[in-house]
Amino acid sequence: MTNAKRKRGCSIPNRNGYGEFPILKATLFVLLLLLCALWFKRNQLTILCPNKTMSEAIQDPPEKTFYDDPTLSYSVEEPMKQWDKKRSHWLQLHPSFAAGASDRILVLTGSQPTPCKNPIGDHLLLRCFKNKVDYCRIHNCEVYYSNLHLHPKMDSYWSKLPIIRSTMMAHPEVEWIWWMDADAVFSDMEFKVPLDRYKDHNLVVHGWSNMVYDDSENKSWTGLNAGSILVRNCQWSMDLLHVWAQMGPLTSNYAKWGKILTSIFKDKPFPLPDDQSSLIYLLSRQRRKWGAKTFLEEGYDLEGYWIATMGKLEGIQNKYDEIEKKARVLRRRHSEKVSVWYGEMREPYLKWSERRPFVKHFTGCQPCSGDHNPSYKGDVCWKEMERALNFADNQVLRNYGFVRKNLMTSSVYEVPFGYPRD
Question: Name one GO cellular component term (predicted).
């Protein structure tokens, strides 16, 4: 090579034809691979959840919890031991969930795993689920829908027990599991459950003390209704679910319990045990153990029989409109997120007026199978379900600027400013 070429910075090619820095290039390539590996290790959770970075993603500490115990069972057949301790330990390791846990609710509902026989059954179940999703969004509740039987023998009304048990374990951050039957509908979307009233109780169910506890003619298998119940996420509830399930179809004593219950509840129309009469039996026969922590709610419609307000919803809506015509603050347009606040502002005006039923339960209608109680004539069940669902949906829809023209139509119109006065 000449001196001129050296001055221009030309290198001497090696015998393989590569530059004179093969080791440096190889080193850089290896470093690049290491950097890629480190990046992937650090961001593997972000890759699975592309909308969150590692600092934003909900993380699970490496310390062992009850989830790491291979002997722990989710089955309602197996007793749960030391659940309060297990749950408390998990919350300590997840402090972001521990904050505000005492007021956290998960609404749990579900239906059968097969399609409905009733031609409009699936449509009605979908609308009933939408109704629950709307309520949960307004009140910042979680919601879970199950369409499976977690135990092959626990179907129909018994299917709620296994799923409540599993949900308690899947959501230790939740204080209350609120089971609602598929055919139960929220019809007052502003009403907030008074959890402070239940601070000393673990089970809340709509019912009447004299029909549950008194040994008299008033004792009835309908003394309470298990279609809408609040269950605290605690050891007491785990024990109750386990004992309660033993009266159901998963044990060999199922028929025996049927005879016992029909001998106690003279108005029970069928011989096999059901979840409702079984719960009443446990509360009344072991009142100190189970009844002391159970709140029988009579103050509002935690579960209201749909017949009681049949034909009244339009009138109730007119009364609410009259209140808003007089109270300017209630006519103000607002976002959906502050609906509960407006509900609280409305309370003083409701002292002298009939209020919306909180929950309407269409017991006996069987919207999926269509095999409704024969005493309900024709299609009255389906019409009343549509009316109740539209009544509730109007309360939601108004925040989006529209309402229905009447409770039996899907036709809507834009709400004018100052509605309902103008």
Answer: Golgi membrane
Q: Domains of the chain (ranges plus CATH)?
A: 74-182+192-299 (3.90.550), 307-414 (no CATH)
Query: Which structure tokens are listed for 141?
Result: 């509740």
How far CA 135 is from CA of 82, 107, 143, 310, in Å, comes to 33, 10, 10, 22
Query: pTM higher than 0.90 for the full model?
Result: no
Sequence-distant (6+) residues with CB within 8 A of 298 are 206, 207, 208
d(CA 380, CA 278): 30
Q: Contact, 275 vs 227, CB < 8 A?
A: no
CA distance 265 to 281: 9
Distance CA(403)–CA(406), nearest Å, equals: 9
CA–CA distances in Å: residue 63 to residues 6, 90, 229, 323: 64, 10, 34, 56
Joined tokens for residue 173: 């951050």
pLDDT of residue 153: 87
pLDDT along the chain (422 residues), means of 10: 44 43 66 67 45 66 96 94 97 90 94 94 96 97 94 89 97 97 96 96 96 84 95 98 95 94 91 94 96 96 94 94 93 94 92 89 94 91 96 96 93 93 78
Cβ density class 205-230: b for 16+ within 10 Å, e for less: bbbbeebbbeeeeebbbbbbbbbbbb
Indicate the SS3 state at residue 239: helix
**Residues 6+ away with beta carbon under 8 Å from 310:** 380, 384
Structure tokens at 253: 């004593």
Q: Which helix (H) or strand (E) holds 146?
A: strand 142-146
Q: Which residues contact 179 (CB under 8 A, 6 or more apart)?
A: 108, 109, 160, 164, 226, 228, 229, 231
Tell the burial category of 395 from Cβ atoms under 10 Å away from its Cβ (0-12, 13-18, 19+): buried
